[in-house]
Design brief:
Helix content: 25-40%
Shape: globular
Largest sheet: 9 strands, mixed
Radius of gyration: 20 Å
Strand order of the largest sheet: 3-2-4-7-1-8-11-10-9
CATH architecture: 3-Layer(aba) Sandwich
Number of helices: 13
Number of domains: 1
Structural class: alpha/beta
Strand content: 15-25%
């Protein structure tokens, strides 16, 4: 039987603009912070999963080692769209479960500030201008194409499809989801934005792809996150304080799309997420009703709504009623995106998967400050990348 795996240390940089730092600087900051949080050094680590999509190519992990320490350990450079960080963590978890090492390190980092709106995850930084680039430019050929391949367009269609199928999901409801997340962000010092928006401000802002206006889209920004994971047997040899702060990874799942006729036309973000959540609940031995908080991939307000359903936080087709009940606010029965989510925390793509896990782990440790969810014991972190990849991790505050 494979060993249980625990998060020993975890760190994320503040998300936003970092004009004076490149991806190696940001990655190093996250790794050094995670190692310090864990109370270990790079010489204790037996494997490195390194995630970066833009700027370093296939050698990001090796280049990162030149700043954090070159110890000869295996490096796995991973690229899996928005699930890159979660995939890097899966590499470290699997190496421990396979018995190849008893301690691993995962990092995800990206610099996106200044990228054009349609080439990245969502909107540009506040105050920036943007121009269409590359294949997404205004003069791109359209012959033979159906719909859109841009992220704002895809997720707009997915939200509208859900509303058409089940009813109740209109422009105002999606704006209210964004209103919640921006309100939550005011308590998160690491968020790129910490501004509360009124419902009217959100609805009257620039329309990106109906029904998502600019504040309802995730922000291109810079940032990094890293985690040190350890086997249970190694954890037992460490100090009582290290054991006290360790967070159990009760489930670690990565899925891709199964073949479906419909998803050959419009990307299907639903099936792979539902399958991932089902597998994660089975691995962890918990159900959605046991979750004290959820960090899900709200790259757009429309995405958050459908993922309530995909993560089985509500009955099938019940996402609108679930949100309207107040359940997803930080004082509700299932708080969702108490960090502010991608819409205000920001979305430096490769960092997001580990950053979502950082948020959950911080609450389970009781270290989330003003935004702390009281007595949090079980949480879920979700990330999805079109292409397709979905990562779901369930974490538990669980004594040895």
């Amino acid at each position: 039987m494979s060993e249980n795996v625990w998060i020993l240390g975890i760190h994320m940089t503040k998300f936003g603009k970092h004009k004076d730092k490149d991806v190696l600087d940001l990655g190093s900051e996250a790794v050094i912070g995670a190692l310090a949080d864990a109370g270990v050094g790079i010489k204790d680590v037996g494997v490195l999963g390194a995630g970066n999509l833009m700027g370093q190519g296939g050698g990001f992990g090796q280049n990162l080692q030149k700043q954090i320490g070159q110890t000869g350990i295996p490096v796995y450079n991973v690229a899996n769209a928005c699930a890159t960080g979660a995939t890097a963590l899966r590499v470290a978890v699997m190496a421990i479960k396979a018995g190849e090492t008893d301690m691993g390190l995962a990092v995800g980092v990206e610099k996106l500030s200044g990228f054009g709106l349609l080439t990245g995850s969502g909107r540009a930084q506040q105050g920036e201008t943007w121009e269409p680039k590359g294949r997404y430019g205004a003069v791109a050929p359209l012959d033979g194409l159906v719909g859109t391949e841009t992220m704002p367009g895809v997720f707009a269609q997915i939200g509208m499809e859900y509303g058409h199928k089940y009813g109740g999901a209109d422009f105002e409801l999606f704006a209210k989801i964004s209103e919640k997340n921006h309100a939550h962000s005011t308590l998160n010092p690491k968020a790129a934005y910490q501004k509360r928006f009124t419902l009217e401000e959100i609805m009257n802002d620039v329309m990106i792809a109906y029904p998502n206006t600019r504040p309802m889209c995730s922000a291109n920004c810079d940032g990094a996150a890293a985690a040190v994971v350890v086997s249970e047997s190694r954890l037992r040899t460490l100090s009582l304080e290290q054991q006290r702060r360790a967070v159990k990874i009760s489930a670690s799942v990565l899925t891709s799309d199964p073949w479906q006729e419909a998803c050959q036309v419009l990307p299907d973000i639903n099936t792979l997420t539902r399958q991932a959540s089902t597998m994660a609940y089975e691995q962890a031995g918990v159900g959605p009703e046991d979750l004290d908080l959820v960090e899900l991939h709200d790259c757009f307000a429309t995405a958050e709504l459908v993922h309530y359903d995909n993560l089985q936080l509500c009955e099938p087709g019940g996402a609108v009623d679930f949100f309207n009940s107040g359940a997803t606010w930080r004082d509700g029965r299932t708080p969702v995106n108490v960090s502010g989510g991608l819409q205000s925390k920001g979305h430096p793509v490769s960092a997001t998967g580990i950053a979502n896990i950082w948020e959950v782990a911080t609450h389970l440790r009781g270290e989330a400050g003003e935004r702390q969810i009281p007595n949090a014991k079980v949480g879920l972190a979700h990330v999805i990348g079109l292409g397709s990849a979905c990562g779901v991790h369930i974490l538990e505050k669980s004594a040895l």
